[in-house]
Amino acid sequence: MASESVRGGCLCGMVRFTVTMPTLFCAHCHCSMCRRNHGAAYVTWIAVPRSQLSIEGGADQLTRYESSPHGSRSFCSRCGSSLFCVLQEHPDIVDIPLANLDEPVDRLPESHIYFDDRASWTVVSDGLPRLGGPSGLEPTG
Q: What does the alpha-carbon distance between residue 141 and residue 119 come to, in Å, rounded to a whole number?
């Protein structure tokens, strides 16, 4: 059971934040930008309205990178941990890597998004819905 709020932070501990529940979603993203940014087969994200994210420390260590014409990613300039992603289409929503939170949130991963963009060596057998297509969010069959 998740708390009403969950703390999180970067690898070096310089950037600390609190996320107030409820989350909007929790999904595994297989897009090539997430894979490269995190050095992993996929990244598990949660999303919350910006008003539910509070930076408690290290705000001056955050560096924002415009990763595409559609959005930006913020990371700790000291240790390089990827912390936040904001899409221009939804500027009031912040995506946060689930692995950067200290405790469970209010939901488990619900789907795989951008699944048809996944790494060819990735084996997924969890039974969660697989979404893809141009939006990354369409049923793949």
A: 19
User: Domain boundaries in the chain?
Assistant: 5-119
Residue from 53, 84, 56 nearest 71 by CA: 84
Fold type of domain 5-119? 2.170.150
The mean predicted confidence, pLDDT, of the chain is: 95
| DSSP codes joined into one string, 4-22 | SEEEEE-SSS-SEEEEESP
Instruction: Count the alpha carbons within 13 Å of 94 in the hemisphere toward its beta carbon.
Output: 22
Q: Which two tokens stand for residue 137?
A: 């969010």
Q: Read off the pLDDT of residues 46-99 as tens digits, 9 standing for 90 and up.
A: 999 999 999 999 999 999 999 988 899 999 999 999 999 999 999 999 999 999
